[in-house]
Amino acid sequence: MRDLTIPDQRHPEKAHRPDQAQPKKPDWIRVKAPVSQGYRDTHKIMREHKLVTVCEEAGCPNVGECWSQGHATMMIMGEICTRGCTFCNVATGKPQALDAFEPGRVADAVKKLGLKHVVITSVDRDDVEDGGAEHFAMTIRAVRRQSPETTIEILTPDFLKCAPEVLETVVKAGPDVFNHNLETVPGLYPTVRPGARYFHSLRLLQRVKEIDPGMFTKSGIMVGLGEDRQSVLQVMDDMRSANVDFLTIGQYLQPTPKHHRVDRFVTPDEFAGYEKAAYGKGFLMVSATPLTRSSYHAGDDFERLRAARMAKLGRA
Questions:
Q1: How confident is the model at residue 192 (pLDDT cuts 50, 70, 90)?
Q2: Pick among 3.20.20.70, 3.40.50.150, 3.20.20.110, 3.40.109.10: CATH of 32-315
Q3: Other C-beta atoms within 10 Å of 135: how many?
């Protein structure tokens, strides 16, 4: 296993200025505008429960499809992040205090939407001592009480400035999938994810498995930021060294002219190549397409992930 504690200096990829001209968006990355009744109904439920979704805040291209099917990724702990990642469209600033009633509202919305699988994510809350770990745990428990048959996937921040024990608070609340995204290759962290640390995030994923070996872990990266193929393959190896089960890879899209520019649009054939390579490295589940996002088709993917584990155990 690779040493997960030393800094990585192998990929000093060149940073890209956001104001440089972008390559033309190809046909395979275009999506339809959200217009269905299902989209409107989901939007109404989110507003009635005063909930924030990453679908809206991050400008996800799949919002029309997902909301039309009644699927939405809940974003807890407010809509103001304490980090300033250059790929992300969520606002940066000083957040308000945590809302003690939010876990209950999330649980109400999950029940009203009739979700079989829910994804719960959050902004980074470096202003809170435990990074919001207990708030995550409260939300998981609230959903369990109201919708005991619903499977729960969480997409957490890195808890970088917190005591190591806070991770146990989240894991022991019992989510079905623990997701934490590495987002990009280590050489691009200084320009893409400057407030984070690659090996800290990798170690966090490894510790989840140490706390609960049976819990599914998941992580994802974006491509088209300036990385090369070899650095992506190395990230796959790093994830497998941390026993990550499920890998997602999607095309980075620049939210505004002020954000990190798109270096290039990765072709569907290249995504297929990444998927093949990832399965060859031992991931139980891989989603690698231009429009792949962490929570895209998350419910269906969870069922496939569970089936893949059962098949693997059957072969053992």
A1: very high
A2: 3.20.20.70
A3: 22
Give the N- to C-terminal CA distance of the chain in Å, as an integer: 22
Query: 197 — phi, psi (to 5°)?
Result: -130, 120
The pair of three-digit structure tokens given for residue 96, joined into one six-digit string = 């308000």
- Contact criterion met (CB below 8 Å) for 107 and 143: yes
Q: Which of 231, 245, 230 is nearest to 281 (CA)?
A: 245
Positive or negative, the CA dihedral 122, 125, 131, 133 is negative
Q: Count Cα neighbours of 253 within 13 Å in the Cβ-side half-sphere.
A: 18
Domain boundaries, the chain: 32-315
pTM of the model: 0.84
Q: Contact at 8 Å (CB) between 291 and 62? A: yes
Nearest alpha carbon to residue 87 among 208, 7, 3, 181: 181
- What confidence tens digit (pLDDT) does each residue in 235-289 have? 999 999 999 999 999 999 888 889 899 999 999 999 999 999 999 999 999 999 9
Work out the angle at residue 249's Cα, subtended by the Cα atoms of residues 178 and 109, and round it to the nearest 5 degrees.
45
Please state, in angstroms and rounded to a whole number, the distance separating the CA atoms of residues 12 and 147: 47
Structure tokens that stand for 148 in this block: 């005991």
**Is 174 in a helix, a strand, or coil?**
coil
DSSP string over 198-241: HHHHHHHHHHHHHH-TTSEEEEEEEESSS--HHHHHHHHHHHHH
Alpha helices in the chain (DSSP H): 37-48, 54-57, 63-68, 102-113, 133-146, 166-171, 189-192, 198-211, 229-241, 268-280, 298-315
179 touches 153 (CB < 8 A): yes
